[in-house]
Design goal:
The protein is mainly alpha-helical. Helices cover 52% and strands 7% of the residues. Strand 1 and strand 2 form a beta hairpin. Helix 2 runs antiparallel to helix 9, helix 7 runs antiparallel to helix 18 and helix 9 runs antiparallel to helix 17. The radius of gyration is 24 Å and the shape is globular. The N and C termini lie far apart (65 Å). The model has no long low-confidence stretch (mean pLDDT 94). The protein binds carboxymethyl coenzyme *A.
């Protein structure tokens, strides 16, 4: 017999269906609750609300597990490439060699931006934040792809839109960086792989003789894999909810980029480095800053610590921490903020405030140190997170459409004034 939950309201009893996921996660289906009872559920921040059934990513916060389409993140980070992972997330299976080659070929055909898009870059002030530029530039892609505006696109148009977005994103991102320096744009090279092409457009490292340092390319590829999806977080839910109105793919992704920008979400990677710099410049007294983070009257938070779902450790942080040591070592970089980061982590992990609240380093705690070692300025870090998250957002947008999910429209409990008498302006005091 299928499991049911029982709800007692006043003198009535209601039965609610229980849904069980393939990893044995349980949910009480309240979708008919209001029709049956006139009640809604209240859950600020959706801390306990499932908004969809999804077959893309599974994470278990207690066990520190993260899987894309059933594959462990540790295996993917170690043995796969970002392009394979993008294909896996979007199309559901690890691509064969032929599928990989074709996917790469299609991407390489669409890496150029329309020349008119350069005018947007010219219009931004030199200090414009890269994330603000990224939202605008990605949304503007819809203007250059009229087929993306059809609210009922064919499968071919959807696939083309996906390829175009994945292909153009590295060009958009690296040109933001070049624009911030006032340097000429470097055009994509179709013979290079995805990440190598991105690094070349950003730093111009390719020469016929030496190519691009594989240590650098592999480090960035790994980081992109670790960021590629993370189920229903703030930006992903935004992409799904915006897309549920029938909004086109570039505009839905642009909304996700805006959601990612905040320091509590993807913006944390920038905030972590700024915090570590602040602590270093303040003399490196980590205990003082731990105490500030614990003080409820002080707005300071230990950036890069805590997670809505992970309550024992963030598996991405574990992988990144190891990668970080390796990369700094290989590149021969001795970054003093790494020492501060390690001291802060040790202190926080032994402090009852952090232990009781299950606050552990998250993905953003060490990623910024790697981005910095690779040569990216701090305000580009969240843009790199967006570059990595793109396939996840696309996969979630596509799944939402394929599931024919209804337009997202939460309810509320109104707590404002009732039935106030209108007063003409002349009589108001
Ligand atoms: N420093 C100090 N105290 C914290 C922190 C922190 N970083 N994070 C949470 N707390 C405290 C919080 O004040 C609360 O204390 P109390 O129970 O006494 O009121 C308790 O821990 C529970 O926190 P919460 O805010 O209810 O937890 P949440 O699930 O709503 O928020 C979070 C999760 C990630 C937004 C939060 O931990 C945070 O702001 N962390 C710092 C920002 C950060 O690193 N964000 C990146 C998240 S991972 C990347 C991504 O995917 O977005």
């Amino acid at each position: 017999m299928s499991e049911k939950a029982t709800l007692n309201l006043g003198n009535k009893t209601y039965e609610l269906p229980v849904v069980t996921g393939t990893e044995n996660e349980k949910a009480i289906d309240i979708s008919k609750l209001r029709d049956q009872t006139s009640y809604i559920t209240l859950d600020s921040g959706f801390k306990n609300t499932g908004c969809t059934k999804s077959a893309i990513t599974f994470l278990d916060g207690e066990q520190g597990l993260l899987k894309y389409r059933g594959y462990a993140i540790e295996d993917l980070a170690e043995k796969s490439t970002f392009i394979e992972v993008a294909y896996l997330l979007i199309y559901g299976n690890l691509p064969t060699q032929a599928e990989t080659d074709n996917f790469k070929l299609q991407i390489s055909k669409h890496t150029l931006l329309h020349e008119d898009m350069k005018k947007f870059y010219d219009a931004f002030p030199p200090k414009a934040h890269p994330m603000g530029q990224l939202c605008s530039l990605v949304s503007s892609l819809s203007a250059f792809s009229p087929e993306s505006l059809n609210p009922n696109p064919s499968k071919e148009d959807i696939d083309l839109g996906i390829i175009k977005l994945i292909a153009k994103m590295p060009t958009i991102v690296s040109w933001i960086y070049k624009g911030s320096l006032g340097e000429p744009f470097i055009y994509p090279k179709s013979q290079l792989d995805y990440v190598a092409n991105f690094m070349n457009m950003t730093f111009g490292q390719v020469t016929e003789e030496i190519g691009i340092d594989p240590v650098v390319v592999n480090a960035l590829d790994k980081l992109l894999i670790l960021h590629a999806d993370h189920e229903q977080n703030c930006s992903t839910s935004t992409v799904r909810i915006v897309g549920s109105s029938g909004c086109n793919l570039p505009a839905s992704i642009s909304a996700g980029i805006s959601a990612l920008w905040g320091p509590l979400h993807g913006g944390a990677n920038q905030a972590v480095i700024e915090m570590l710099e602040l602590i270093k410049n303040d003399g490196g007294d980590t205990e003082k800053w731990i105490n500030k983070a614990k003080d409820k009257n002080d707005p300071f938070l230990l950036m890069g610590f805590g997670h809505r779902v992970y309550k024992n450790f963030d598996p991405r942080a574990n992988i990144i921490k190891k990668a970080c040591d390796k990369i700094l070592d290989k590149l021969g970089i001795n970054d003093p903020i790494l020492e501060i980061a390690k001291k802060l982590e040790d202190a926080a992990l032994n402090d009852p405030y952090f232990v009781e609240r299950k606050l552990y380093p998250n993905v953003d705690f060490y990623s910024g140190i790697i981005y910095r070692a690779l040569g990216f300025p701090t305000d580009m870090f969240t843009v790199l997170f967006a570059l990595g998250r793109l396939p996840g957002w696309i996969a979630q947008w596509k799944e939402m459409r394929e599931n024919k999910e209804p337009i997202g429209r939460p309810r509320q409990v109104y707590v404002g004034e009732v039935n106030k008498q209108f007063i003409p302006i002349a009589d108001r005091v």
